[in-house]
Design goal:
The chain is an alpha/beta fold and 217 residues long. It contains seven helices and seven strands; from the N terminus they run H-H-E-H-E-H-E-E-H-E-H-E-H-E. Helix content is 32%, strand content 21%. Bound molecules: S-adenosylmethionine. S-adenosylmethionine (SAM) binds next to loops. S-adenosylmethionine binds next to loops.
């Protein structure tokens, strides 16, 4: 598929092609891409969180294999989230925008523009618990499809955890996913402290992680 720039920073070029990322990073780079996809990033994308640790930010900046792709099916919310990210990135002097590896893509969570088994991390934050979430079951199916074996699907719910827990039933029953113990470290740096900080102030808030495993054929 032809690569093209879009209003959200040209991230579609990352997704639609087989070798595009390699081209962007130069032929010398042999390291496998570590692609993080947030589904339903809305006006408050994970990558804009004040809770991100210095270690997380520094690693994302220095490691050219890491991409963060925020997606939402609402262009308005996605655009607001992108603008907040850019503003805060400058104000907090994080300089993540300069990496060219943080992208905002208009996409339905139930029809993701990613190849099967291509994503290292999927984040649902305050999406599976959102009573207005569109097609949550299909979103979870898509998340499972795009995840690599060994990849991690992360659910963070701060506001309406009872709805998220109902939806998570699907994830718990999926044969290809295993729930990870709460203390298990996941991510390109340990993200448990970051996620805990996001949920600390709210009694019923939770984080749940699932790892995709190989299924015997
Ligand atoms: C409650 S907001 C959460 C936003 C952000 N993740 C946060 O933590 O504040 C839920 C977001 O999910 C998005 N959303 C709901 N259903 C969706 C779908 N099927 N595909 C993509 N985005 C969806 C909405 O547009 C909205 O931006």
């Amino acid at each position: 598929m032809k690569s093209s720039k879009n209003a959200y920073g040209g991230a579609d070029t990352l997704i639609c092609m087989g070798k595009g990322l390699e081209r962007q990073r130069g032929p010398e780079s042999k390291k496998e891409e570590y692609i993080i996809v947030e589904i339903g990033s809305g006006a408050s994308p994970y990558i804009d969180s004040p809770e991100l640790s210095k270690e997380y930010i520094d690693k994302l900046k220095e490691d050219e294999s890491i991409y963060f792709i925020a997606t939402d099916d609402s262009g308005g919310s996605l655009g607001t989230g992108r603008n907040w990210f850019r503003l805060n990135d400058e104000m907090r002097e994080r300089e993540l925008e300069k990496t060219g590896r943080v992208h905002f893509v208009l996409a339905s969570g139930h029809q993701l523009p990613f190849r099967d088994n291509s994503v290292a991390e999927v984040i649902f934050r305050n999406v599976l618990g959102d009573p207005e979430a569109r097609k949550p079951l299909e979103m979870m199916r898509e998340a499972e499809r795009v995840l690599k074996v060994g990849g991690v699907l992360k659910v963070i719910e701060m506001y309406t955890p009872h709805i998220a827990r109902q939806n998570m039933d699907f994830l718990s029953r999926a044969r290809s996913l295993e729930r990870l113990p709460d203390a298990e470290k996941t991510g390109f740096v340990d993200e448990t402290a970051i996620d805990e900080a996001m949920t600390r102030e709210r009694a019923a808030a939770f984080v749940a992680r699932f790892r995709k495993k190989e299924l015997a054929s």
